[in-house]
Amino acid sequence: MPAIETTDWLALKARIATLVTAPVVPVYDPDAIVTPPADAVGPAPYILVSDVTNDPVRVGIARRGNAGVDHVRSGTLMLSLQWPIARPLSHTQLKELAGQIAEHFPADACMTYGPSRLRVTQDSAALQPYVDGAYRVAVVRVFWSSM
């Protein structure tokens, strides 16, 4: 049986897999070897995923047989939309795309996988876009915790 940290990640990953963007943008997991995509126009946009977990917080003494109930696990899921500067896109359009990604993770959205039951703890936020090298970057921040 996988560790609870593994099933937490798989619960997040299952939610990410249902994300639909327009235009369609490939998503790269934290362990992926990323070769930025390209098409006939040149470099193409993509999303990088990061998940930062916090130390578990003990909330009480678990009854015998309720393993894991005595700790709350939490973290921050970050989805970084990478948009090539060479592709036309206004600042407003980039913020809109990031907002659409954030809307996929509304407050109280539940994510499950095996024993893991996670929820989004507040509405996700599309942070201020910035330029990094040859890309415009818009980060979406998703706070989550175990239920």
What would you note in describing this structure?
The chain is an alpha+beta fold and 147 residues long. It has helices at residues 4-17, 91-103, and strands at residues 27-28, 38-39, 42-43, 46-53, 57-58, 71-72, 74-84, 110-113, 116-120, 125-126, 130-132, 135-146. Strands 1, 4, 7, 8, 9, 10, 11 and 12 form an 8-stranded mixed sheet that branches. A two-stranded antiparallel sheet has the order 2-3. A hairpin with a 2-residue loop joins strand 11 and strand 12 (135-146). The radius of gyration is 17 Å and the shape is elongated.
| Unreliable residue stretches | none
Q: What would you call the shape?
A: elongated
The total of helices stands at: 2
Q: Give the helices and strands as they follow along the chain.
A: HEEEEEEEHEEEEE
Oligomer: single chain
What is the CA-CA span between the terminal residues? 20 Å
Q: For the report, how would you describe the main beta sheet?
A: 8 strands, mixed
**CA-atom Rg in angstroms:** 17 Å
Classify the beta-strand content into a percent band: 35-45%
**Total beta strand runs:** 12
- The averaged pLDDT comes out at 92
| Helix percentage | 10-25%
Structural class call reads: alpha+beta
